[in-house]
Amino acid sequence: MTDRLPGFNTLAIHAGAAPDKSTGARATPIYQTASFVFDDVDHAASLFGLQAFGNIYSRITNPTNAVLEERIAALEGGTAAVAVASGHAAEFLTMNALMQPGDEFIAADKLYGGSINQFNHAYKNFGWNVVWADTDDPSSFERAITPRTRAIFCESIANPGGVITDIAALSAIAKRHNIPLVVDNTMATPYLIRPFEHGADIVVHSATKFLGGHGNSIGGLVVDGGTFNWAGDDRYPALSQPRPEYAGMVLSETFGNFAFAIAIRVLGLRDLGPALAPFNAFLILNGIETLPLRMQRHCDNALAIATHLSRHAAVDWVSYPGLESDRYHGLARRYAPLGSGAVFTLGLKGGYEAGVKLVSNLQLFSHLANIGDTRSLVIHPASTTHRQLTDPQKISAGAGPEVVRLSIGLEDPADLIEDLDAALSA
Ligand SMILES: *Cc1c(COP(=O)(O)O)cnc(C)c1O
What we know:
Layout: H1 8-14, H2 41-48, H3 63-76, E1 80-84, H4 87-98, E2 104-108, H5 113-120, E3 129-133, H6 138-144, E4 149-155, E5 157-158, E6 163-164, H7 167-176, E7 181-184, H8 189-192, E8 202-206, E9 220-224, H9 237-240, H10 251-255, H11 259-272, H12 278-289, H13 291-310, E10 315-319, H14 329-335, E11 343-348, H15 351-361, E12 366-367, E13 377-379, H16 391-396, E14 403-407, H17 413-425
Parallel strand pairs: 2-3, 2-4, 4-7, 7-8, 12-13
Antiparallel strand pairs: 1-9, 5-6, 8-9, 10-11, 11-14, 13-14
Helix pairs in contact: 1-3, 3-12, 4-11, 6-7, 15-17
The structure holds pyridoxal-5'-phosphate.
Protein backbone atom coordinates (compact mmCIF):
# COMPACT_ATOMS: atom_id res chain seq x y z
CA MET A 1 0.00 0.00 0.00
CA THR A 2 1.14 3.57 -0.68
CA ASP A 3 0.74 6.62 1.56
CA ARG A 4 -2.57 7.40 -0.13
CA LEU A 5 -5.42 7.31 2.41
CA PRO A 6 -8.09 4.68 1.78
CA GLY A 7 -11.38 5.92 0.30
CA PHE A 8 -14.62 6.35 2.21
CA ASN A 9 -16.10 2.98 1.11
CA THR A 10 -12.97 1.14 2.25
CA LEU A 11 -12.88 2.95 5.60
CA ALA A 12 -16.58 2.18 6.18
CA ILE A 13 -15.71 -1.54 6.06
CA HIS A 14 -12.18 -1.73 7.48
CA ALA A 15 -11.37 1.26 9.71
CA GLY A 16 -10.61 0.12 13.26
CA ALA A 17 -11.14 -3.57 12.51
CA ALA A 18 -8.66 -6.43 12.04
CA PRO A 19 -8.99 -10.22 12.27
CA ASP A 20 -9.28 -11.20 15.95
CA LYS A 21 -5.76 -11.92 17.23
CA SER A 22 -6.63 -14.94 19.35
CA THR A 23 -9.27 -16.68 17.19
CA GLY A 24 -8.86 -15.32 13.65
CA ALA A 25 -12.53 -14.29 13.60
CA ARG A 26 -12.96 -11.94 10.61
CA ALA A 27 -16.11 -10.15 11.75
CA THR A 28 -15.62 -7.99 14.84
CA PRO A 29 -16.44 -10.20 17.87
CA ILE A 30 -18.92 -9.05 20.49
CA TYR A 31 -16.85 -8.77 23.66
CA GLN A 32 -19.79 -9.38 25.98
CA THR A 33 -17.89 -8.96 29.22
CA ALA A 34 -18.23 -6.48 32.05
CA SER A 35 -14.55 -6.42 33.02
CA PHE A 36 -11.01 -7.43 32.02
CA VAL A 37 -8.23 -9.25 33.91
CA PHE A 38 -5.07 -7.24 34.71
CA ASP A 39 -1.60 -8.61 33.84
CA ASP A 40 -0.37 -7.78 37.33
CA VAL A 41 -0.66 -5.18 40.07
CA ASP A 42 1.54 -2.62 38.28
CA HIS A 43 -0.50 -2.97 35.08
CA ALA A 44 -3.70 -2.38 37.04
CA ALA A 45 -2.22 0.71 38.71
CA SER A 46 -1.08 2.22 35.40
CA LEU A 47 -4.52 1.66 33.81
CA PHE A 48 -6.28 3.34 36.72
CA GLY A 49 -3.80 6.22 36.67
CA LEU A 50 -4.29 6.79 32.90
CA GLN A 51 -0.60 6.03 32.35
CA ALA A 52 -1.42 3.13 29.99
CA PHE A 53 -4.27 2.49 27.57
CA GLY A 54 -6.21 -0.71 28.14
CA ASN A 55 -9.48 -2.20 29.28
CA ILE A 56 -10.66 -2.09 32.87
CA TYR A 57 -14.44 -2.23 32.80
CA SER A 58 -16.96 -1.96 29.91
CA ARG A 59 -18.56 1.20 31.26
CA ILE A 60 -15.31 2.97 30.24
CA THR A 61 -13.87 0.96 27.32
CA ASN A 62 -14.75 -2.25 25.46
CA PRO A 63 -12.93 -3.79 22.45
CA THR A 64 -16.09 -4.04 20.28
CA ASN A 65 -16.97 -0.43 21.04
CA ALA A 66 -13.36 0.56 20.31
CA VAL A 67 -13.70 -0.66 16.70
CA LEU A 68 -16.83 1.46 16.29
CA GLU A 69 -15.01 4.44 17.83
CA GLU A 70 -12.04 4.16 15.47
CA ARG A 71 -14.31 3.70 12.50
CA ILE A 72 -16.40 6.81 13.07
CA ALA A 73 -13.28 8.86 13.86
CA ALA A 74 -11.83 7.76 10.49
CA LEU A 75 -15.04 8.47 8.56
CA GLU A 76 -15.46 11.92 10.11
CA GLY A 77 -11.75 12.78 9.94
CA GLY A 78 -11.48 13.30 13.72
CA THR A 79 -8.66 12.39 16.12
CA ALA A 80 -10.70 10.05 18.38
CA ALA A 81 -14.28 9.11 19.25
CA VAL A 82 -16.28 7.72 22.14
CA ALA A 83 -19.28 5.40 21.78
CA VAL A 84 -22.13 6.07 24.21
CA ALA A 85 -25.60 4.73 24.96
CA SER A 86 -27.63 7.09 22.75
CA GLY A 87 -27.54 10.29 20.74
CA HIS A 88 -28.90 12.12 23.76
CA ALA A 89 -26.07 10.74 25.90
CA ALA A 90 -23.58 12.03 23.29
CA GLU A 91 -25.06 15.54 23.54
CA PHE A 92 -25.21 15.43 27.34
CA LEU A 93 -21.65 14.18 27.86
CA THR A 94 -20.38 16.80 25.39
CA MET A 95 -22.04 19.63 27.29
CA ASN A 96 -20.92 18.12 30.61
CA ALA A 97 -17.30 18.47 29.49
CA LEU A 98 -17.78 22.08 28.34
CA MET A 99 -20.17 23.67 30.84
CA GLN A 100 -20.09 24.83 34.45
CA PRO A 101 -23.17 25.99 36.39
CA GLY A 102 -24.17 29.44 35.10
CA ASP A 103 -22.55 28.94 31.68
CA GLU A 104 -24.40 29.35 28.39
CA PHE A 105 -24.34 27.79 24.96
CA ILE A 106 -25.98 28.97 21.76
CA ALA A 107 -28.12 26.47 19.85
CA ALA A 108 -29.61 26.67 16.38
CA ASP A 109 -33.41 26.82 16.64
CA LYS A 110 -34.04 24.07 14.07
CA LEU A 111 -33.15 20.90 15.96
CA TYR A 112 -34.40 17.41 16.74
CA GLY A 113 -37.34 17.89 19.16
CA GLY A 114 -35.69 15.75 21.84
CA SER A 115 -32.64 18.03 21.79
CA ILE A 116 -34.86 21.09 22.24
CA ASN A 117 -36.41 19.45 25.31
CA GLN A 118 -33.04 18.35 26.70
CA PHE A 119 -31.61 21.86 26.33
CA ASN A 120 -34.67 23.77 27.58
CA HIS A 121 -35.61 21.58 30.54
CA ALA A 122 -33.11 18.88 31.64
CA TYR A 123 -30.09 21.19 31.45
CA LYS A 124 -31.71 23.61 33.90
CA ASN A 125 -30.94 21.07 36.65
CA PHE A 126 -27.22 21.54 35.95
CA GLY A 127 -27.38 25.34 35.70
CA TRP A 128 -26.57 25.22 31.96
CA ASN A 129 -28.44 27.82 29.95
CA VAL A 130 -29.38 27.48 26.29
CA VAL A 131 -29.72 30.63 24.15
CA TRP A 132 -31.54 30.09 20.86
CA ALA A 133 -30.39 31.58 17.55
CA ASP A 134 -31.85 31.51 14.04
CA THR A 135 -30.41 28.60 12.01
CA ASP A 136 -30.94 30.63 8.83
CA ASP A 137 -29.19 33.78 10.12
CA PRO A 138 -25.57 33.17 11.25
CA SER A 139 -25.27 36.77 12.52
CA SER A 140 -27.92 35.95 15.16
CA PHE A 141 -25.39 33.54 16.73
CA GLU A 142 -22.74 36.24 16.96
CA ARG A 143 -25.20 38.67 18.57
CA ALA A 144 -26.04 36.04 21.23
CA ILE A 145 -22.42 35.55 22.39
CA THR A 146 -21.63 36.69 25.96
CA PRO A 147 -18.59 36.14 28.25
CA ARG A 148 -20.35 32.99 29.53
CA THR A 149 -20.82 31.35 26.12
CA ARG A 150 -19.02 28.00 26.05
CA ALA A 151 -20.24 26.38 22.80
CA ILE A 152 -22.26 26.78 19.62
CA PHE A 153 -24.49 23.82 18.71
CA CYS A 154 -26.23 23.05 15.40
CA GLU A 155 -27.28 20.15 13.16
CA SER A 156 -25.68 19.76 9.70
CA ILE A 157 -28.94 18.80 8.00
CA ALA A 158 -31.53 19.94 10.52
CA ASN A 159 -34.86 18.61 11.69
CA PRO A 160 -37.64 18.38 10.79
CA GLY A 161 -35.79 17.76 7.55
CA GLY A 162 -35.06 19.96 4.61
CA VAL A 163 -32.82 22.52 6.37
CA ILE A 164 -29.10 22.81 5.48
CA THR A 165 -26.94 24.71 7.99
CA ASP A 166 -24.14 27.02 6.82
CA ILE A 167 -21.54 25.30 9.02
CA ALA A 168 -18.61 27.36 7.70
CA ALA A 169 -20.38 30.63 8.58
CA LEU A 170 -21.04 29.40 12.14
CA SER A 171 -17.44 28.15 12.39
CA ALA A 172 -16.10 31.57 11.38
CA ILE A 173 -18.09 33.16 14.23
CA ALA A 174 -17.03 30.45 16.70
CA LYS A 175 -13.35 30.91 15.77
CA ARG A 176 -13.60 34.71 16.04
CA HIS A 177 -14.73 34.31 19.66
CA ASN A 178 -12.62 31.21 20.42
CA ILE A 179 -15.64 29.00 21.19
CA PRO A 180 -15.95 25.35 20.04
CA LEU A 181 -18.54 24.53 17.36
CA VAL A 182 -20.47 21.29 18.06
CA VAL A 183 -22.31 19.78 15.08
CA ASP A 184 -24.94 17.03 15.36
CA ASN A 185 -24.29 15.13 12.10
CA THR A 186 -27.02 12.49 12.57
CA MET A 187 -29.18 13.38 9.56
CA ALA A 188 -26.29 13.78 7.09
CA THR A 189 -23.79 11.14 8.32
CA PRO A 190 -20.17 11.61 7.19
CA TYR A 191 -21.15 10.15 3.80
CA LEU A 192 -23.00 13.38 2.94
CA ILE A 193 -21.29 16.02 5.13
CA ARG A 194 -18.05 15.94 7.14
CA PRO A 195 -18.42 18.91 9.51
CA PHE A 196 -14.71 19.02 10.46
CA GLU A 197 -13.91 19.96 6.84
CA HIS A 198 -16.11 23.04 7.35
CA GLY A 199 -14.60 24.10 10.68
CA ALA A 200 -16.52 22.14 13.34
CA ASP A 201 -14.57 21.17 16.48
CA ILE A 202 -16.77 18.37 17.87
CA VAL A 203 -19.26 16.10 16.09
CA VAL A 204 -22.04 14.17 17.84
CA HIS A 205 -24.26 11.44 16.42
CA SER A 206 -27.35 9.48 17.15
CA ALA A 207 -26.07 6.17 15.73
CA THR A 208 -29.66 4.97 16.15
CA LYS A 209 -30.53 6.54 12.81
CA PHE A 210 -28.59 6.20 9.52
CA LEU A 211 -25.28 4.88 10.93
CA GLY A 212 -26.92 1.76 12.38
CA GLY A 213 -29.46 2.19 9.64
CA HIS A 214 -31.81 -0.72 10.37
CA GLY A 215 -33.93 0.62 13.22
CA ASN A 216 -32.67 -2.02 15.64
CA SER A 217 -30.47 -0.34 18.27
CA ILE A 218 -30.05 2.88 20.20
CA GLY A 219 -26.52 4.33 20.27
CA GLY A 220 -24.54 7.56 20.15
CA LEU A 221 -21.06 8.84 19.32
CA VAL A 222 -18.92 11.84 20.22
CA VAL A 223 -16.07 12.63 17.79
CA ASP A 224 -13.15 14.91 18.70
CA GLY A 225 -11.91 17.02 15.78
CA GLY A 226 -8.68 17.73 17.63
CA THR A 227 -8.88 21.36 16.52
CA PHE A 228 -9.73 23.31 19.67
CA ASN A 229 -6.91 24.47 21.95
CA TRP A 230 -8.09 23.89 25.53
CA ALA A 231 -4.68 24.34 27.16
CA GLY A 232 -4.61 27.06 29.79
CA ASP A 233 -8.18 28.10 29.04
CA ASP A 234 -9.93 28.67 32.38
CA ARG A 235 -13.35 28.62 30.71
CA TYR A 236 -12.95 24.84 30.27
CA PRO A 237 -11.65 23.58 33.64
CA ALA A 238 -12.46 19.92 32.88
CA LEU A 239 -9.80 20.07 30.15
CA SER A 240 -7.40 22.75 31.33
CA GLN A 241 -7.20 22.32 35.13
CA PRO A 242 -5.50 19.57 37.21
CA ARG A 243 -7.82 16.60 37.83
CA PRO A 244 -7.82 15.68 41.52
CA GLU A 245 -8.94 12.10 40.75
CA TYR A 246 -5.92 11.59 38.42
CA ALA A 247 -3.14 12.92 40.70
CA GLY A 248 -3.33 16.42 39.24
CA MET A 249 -3.13 15.37 35.59
CA VAL A 250 -4.23 18.11 33.12
CA LEU A 251 -6.07 16.37 30.27
CA SER A 252 -5.16 18.96 27.61
CA GLU A 253 -1.44 18.63 28.48
CA THR A 254 -1.33 14.84 28.61
CA PHE A 255 -3.61 14.06 25.66
CA GLY A 256 -3.19 17.02 23.30
CA ASN A 257 -5.43 16.85 20.26
CA PHE A 258 -7.61 14.03 21.60
CA ALA A 259 -8.06 15.45 25.12
CA PHE A 260 -11.75 16.14 24.51
CA ALA A 261 -12.45 12.47 23.69
CA ILE A 262 -10.54 11.45 26.84
CA ALA A 263 -12.66 13.88 28.90
CA ILE A 264 -15.84 12.30 27.49
CA ARG A 265 -14.55 8.87 28.46
CA VAL A 266 -12.98 9.45 31.88
CA LEU A 267 -15.24 12.24 33.17
CA GLY A 268 -18.40 11.35 31.21
CA LEU A 269 -18.65 7.56 30.81
CA ARG A 270 -16.70 6.74 33.96
CA ASP A 271 -18.61 9.09 36.27
CA LEU A 272 -22.04 9.41 34.67
CA GLY A 273 -22.29 5.97 33.08
CA PRO A 274 -24.28 5.96 29.79
CA ALA A 275 -22.19 3.20 28.16
CA LEU A 276 -23.08 1.52 24.87
CA ALA A 277 -23.72 -2.26 25.03
CA PRO A 278 -21.15 -4.16 22.91
CA PHE A 279 -24.00 -5.94 21.10
CA ASN A 280 -25.37 -2.58 19.94
CA ALA A 281 -21.86 -1.52 18.86
CA PHE A 282 -21.71 -4.72 16.76
CA LEU A 283 -25.05 -3.95 15.06
CA ILE A 284 -24.04 -0.34 14.40
CA LEU A 285 -20.69 -1.50 12.94
CA ASN A 286 -22.57 -3.84 10.59
CA GLY A 287 -24.75 -0.93 9.55
CA ILE A 288 -21.78 1.32 8.84
CA GLU A 289 -20.25 -1.25 6.46
CA THR A 290 -23.02 -0.45 3.96
CA LEU A 291 -23.44 3.24 4.89
CA PRO A 292 -22.24 4.63 1.51
CA LEU A 293 -24.57 2.32 -0.46
CA ARG A 294 -27.55 2.93 1.80
CA MET A 295 -27.15 6.71 2.08
CA GLN A 296 -26.97 7.10 -1.68
CA ARG A 297 -30.12 5.01 -2.16
CA HIS A 298 -31.87 6.91 0.67
CA CYS A 299 -31.06 10.21 -1.09
CA ASP A 300 -31.99 9.01 -4.58
CA ASN A 301 -35.31 7.59 -3.35
CA ALA A 302 -36.06 10.74 -1.35
CA LEU A 303 -35.43 12.99 -4.36
CA ALA A 304 -37.70 10.83 -6.57
CA ILE A 305 -40.49 10.93 -4.00
CA ALA A 306 -40.10 14.62 -3.18
CA THR A 307 -40.25 15.41 -6.90
CA HIS A 308 -43.41 13.33 -7.33
CA LEU A 309 -45.13 14.87 -4.31
CA SER A 310 -44.19 18.43 -5.34
CA ARG A 311 -46.39 17.90 -8.42
CA HIS A 312 -49.27 16.18 -6.60
CA ALA A 313 -52.65 17.95 -6.56
CA ALA A 314 -53.26 17.24 -2.83
CA VAL A 315 -49.87 18.65 -1.79
CA ASP A 316 -49.40 22.35 -1.05
CA TRP A 317 -45.61 22.38 -0.63
CA VAL A 318 -42.59 20.06 -0.23
CA SER A 319 -39.52 21.12 1.74
CA TYR A 320 -36.56 19.13 0.34
CA PRO A 321 -33.23 20.83 -0.50
CA GLY A 322 -32.61 18.42 -3.36
CA LEU A 323 -35.42 20.16 -5.31
CA GLU A 324 -34.06 22.95 -7.49
CA SER A 325 -36.81 25.31 -6.40
CA ASP A 326 -36.00 24.83 -2.68
CA ARG A 327 -34.66 27.74 -0.63
CA TYR A 328 -31.79 25.55 0.68
CA HIS A 329 -30.82 24.18 -2.75
CA GLY A 330 -27.71 26.40 -2.98
CA LEU A 331 -26.48 25.34 0.48
CA ALA A 332 -27.30 21.71 -0.39
CA ARG A 333 -25.13 21.84 -3.51
CA ARG A 334 -22.28 23.35 -1.52
CA TYR A 335 -22.40 21.13 1.59
CA ALA A 336 -24.07 17.91 0.44
CA PRO A 337 -23.48 17.45 -3.30
CA LEU A 338 -24.18 13.70 -3.12
CA GLY A 339 -27.73 14.22 -1.85
CA SER A 340 -29.90 16.00 0.70
CA GLY A 341 -30.67 13.08 2.99
CA ALA A 342 -33.79 10.99 3.45
CA VAL A 343 -35.97 13.09 5.73
CA PHE A 344 -38.29 15.85 4.57
CA THR A 345 -41.64 17.47 5.23
CA LEU A 346 -44.64 18.28 3.07
CA GLY A 347 -47.73 20.39 3.60
CA LEU A 348 -51.15 19.01 2.68
CA LYS A 349 -53.84 21.28 1.22
CA GLY A 350 -56.41 19.49 3.41
CA GLY A 351 -54.71 20.56 6.70
CA TYR A 352 -54.88 18.59 9.96
CA GLU A 353 -57.61 16.15 8.82
CA ALA A 354 -55.70 15.32 5.64
CA GLY A 355 -52.52 14.70 7.67
CA VAL A 356 -54.25 12.27 10.01
CA LYS A 357 -55.91 10.52 7.05
CA LEU A 358 -52.66 10.15 5.12
CA VAL A 359 -50.88 8.57 8.09
CA SER A 360 -53.80 6.17 8.68
CA ASN A 361 -54.12 5.12 5.04
CA LEU A 362 -50.47 4.41 4.22
CA GLN A 363 -49.66 0.68 4.07
CA LEU A 364 -45.95 0.41 3.24
CA PHE A 365 -44.86 3.40 5.34
CA SER A 366 -44.71 2.70 9.09
CA HIS A 367 -46.33 5.26 11.39
CA LEU A 368 -43.76 5.84 14.12
CA ALA A 369 -41.34 8.31 15.72
CA ASN A 370 -37.97 7.50 14.18
CA ILE A 371 -35.86 8.26 11.11
CA GLY A 372 -33.07 6.51 9.24
CA ASP A 373 -34.45 2.97 8.94
CA THR A 374 -34.27 0.71 5.86
CA ARG A 375 -38.09 0.98 6.00
CA SER A 376 -39.95 4.13 5.00
CA LEU A 377 -41.47 5.97 7.97
CA VAL A 378 -44.14 8.64 8.39
CA ILE A 379 -45.34 10.86 11.19
CA HIS A 380 -47.87 13.68 11.54
CA PRO A 381 -46.10 15.90 14.11
CA ALA A 382 -49.15 18.03 15.06
CA SER A 383 -51.07 14.98 16.34
CA THR A 384 -48.05 13.20 17.90
CA THR A 385 -44.57 14.54 18.74
CA HIS A 386 -45.63 18.22 18.83
CA ARG A 387 -49.14 17.64 20.18
CA GLN A 388 -48.48 19.43 23.51
CA LEU A 389 -47.41 22.71 21.84
CA THR A 390 -49.74 25.65 21.19
CA ASP A 391 -50.68 26.32 17.55
CA PRO A 392 -48.18 29.20 17.11
CA GLN A 393 -45.44 27.06 18.75
CA LYS A 394 -46.27 24.20 16.37
CA ILE A 395 -45.93 26.48 13.37
CA SER A 396 -42.58 27.97 14.44
CA ALA A 397 -41.25 24.44 15.10
CA GLY A 398 -42.16 23.46 11.53
CA ALA A 399 -45.00 21.25 12.80
CA GLY A 400 -48.08 23.11 11.62
CA PRO A 401 -51.39 21.17 11.31
CA GLU A 402 -50.85 20.42 7.60
CA VAL A 403 -47.26 19.11 7.98
CA VAL A 404 -46.31 15.46 7.46
CA ARG A 405 -42.73 14.20 7.88
CA LEU A 406 -41.36 11.32 5.81
CA SER A 407 -38.13 9.32 6.28
CA ILE A 408 -37.62 7.57 2.97
CA GLY A 409 -36.28 4.01 3.15
CA LEU A 410 -34.62 1.66 0.69
CA GLU A 411 -37.71 0.11 -0.93
CA ASP A 412 -38.47 0.46 -4.66
CA PRO A 413 -39.49 4.09 -5.18
CA ALA A 414 -42.36 3.00 -7.46
CA ASP A 415 -43.90 1.07 -4.56
CA LEU A 416 -43.54 4.03 -2.19
CA ILE A 417 -45.12 6.37 -4.74
CA GLU A 418 -48.02 3.95 -5.31
CA ASP A 419 -48.59 3.77 -1.53
CA LEU A 420 -48.54 7.58 -1.19
CA ASP A 421 -50.84 8.12 -4.17
CA ALA A 422 -53.37 5.57 -2.90
CA ALA A 423 -53.35 7.09 0.61
CA LEU A 424 -53.66 10.66 -0.70
CA SER A 425 -56.69 9.81 -2.85
CA ALA A 426 -58.44 7.61 -0.27
C1 LIG B 1 -32.63 10.89 17.27
C2 LIG B 1 -31.77 12.07 17.31
C3 LIG B 1 -31.09 12.44 18.47
C4 LIG B 1 -31.21 11.65 19.76
O1 LIG B 1 -30.64 10.38 19.58
P1 LIG B 1 -31.14 9.07 20.41
O2 LIG B 1 -30.22 8.00 19.87
O3 LIG B 1 -32.58 8.87 20.10
O4 LIG B 1 -30.90 9.39 21.85
C5 LIG B 1 -30.27 13.54 18.44
N1 LIG B 1 -30.16 14.29 17.33
C6 LIG B 1 -30.80 13.97 16.19
C7 LIG B 1 -30.64 14.83 14.97
C8 LIG B 1 -31.64 12.87 16.13
O5 LIG B 1 -32.29 12.57 15.01
